[in-house]
Write a structure and sequence with these properties.
Blueprint lengths: L2 H5 L4 H10 L11 H10 L2 H6 L8 H11 L5 H11 L6 H10 L7 H14 L2 H14 L6 H10 L5 H17 L1 H9 L5 H13 L5 H7 L7
Helix pairs in contact: 3-5, 5-7, 7-9, 8-9, 9-11, 10-11, 11-12, 11-13
Length: 223
């Protein structure tokens, strides 16, 4: 499949919908992500690498590259493509698709931990969000809880998508490690938005008991 084949899959209704929920500098064609996944899954390895030569004009082409990164199994080969991709991210969807695609992180957690630390320390909105969402997807375990809480403390920010990721990450920690996360919340230094968004996400979760949802409300900050 070449670039023209991909462009031929554009759909006006999907374009209209995506344009409402995704704020991006790229032109949106309107191709659903399951279709993009099928494209990547059918490509040979050389064809997957060839995707990275395509011009970054269209949102779906940049999204295809995020999916393609998940097909690179060698971390030494992946790393330069990963760093090449980061500056392309200008919205939550590209960030989160990239992170969910990088299954190789599961087998190389210690290696990627250094990368995550570097991302978090950049203070760049989507670099930091990538770091936080990688923690969310692959590191919510007893071995990494302290690192996660420390990372949340380090990423104090006024950026909306950083703080949404912090809240999302804390919610997942609460679901899986309630007592440890409660202890963190009792001594936190979170801003009002992140704290209240965390509580909101916990309340919306079907994996949290009613009593825990009621208890967590004591931490809510009023304006």
């Amino acid at each position: 499949m070449n670039l023209q084949d991909i462009l031929s899959l554009k759909d006006s209704k999907t374009k209209e919908f995506n344009s409402k929920i995704i704020n991006t500098k790229y032109e949106i064609l309107g191709i659903k992500i399951p279709i993009l996944r099928k494209i990547v899954n059918k490509l040979s390895y050389p064809e997957i690498l060839n995707l990275f030569t395509y011009e970054n004009k269209y949102y779906e082409i940049v999204l295809l590259k995020a999916l393609a990164l998940g097909k690179i199994k060698s971390i030494k080969e992946l790393e330069p493509y990963f760093y090449q991709y980061l500056p392309l991210i200008d919205n939550w969807a590209l960030c989160d698709t990239l992170c969910s695609s990088l299954k190789t992180v599961k087998e190389n957690k210690e290696y990627f931990l250094n990368i995550i630390s570097n991302l978090i320390n950049t203070k760049k909105e989507y670099y930091v969000r990538v770091g936080l969402v990688l923690l969310l997807n692959y590191y919510v375990s007893s071995d990494y809880l302290n690192y996660i809480f420390s990372s949340i403390n380090k990423t104090k920010s006024t950026y909306y998508y950083i703080n949404m990721a912090r809240a999302w990450l804390l919610c997942e920690c609460f679901i899986k490690y309630e007592s440890e996360t409660l202890n963190y919340l009792e001594h936190h230094s979170l801003d009002q938005f992140t704290l209240n968004k965390t509580i909101s996400k916990i309340k919306d979760s079907y994996r949290v008991s009613k009593s825990s949802k009621e208890y967590i409300m004591q931490f809510k900050k009023e304006s």
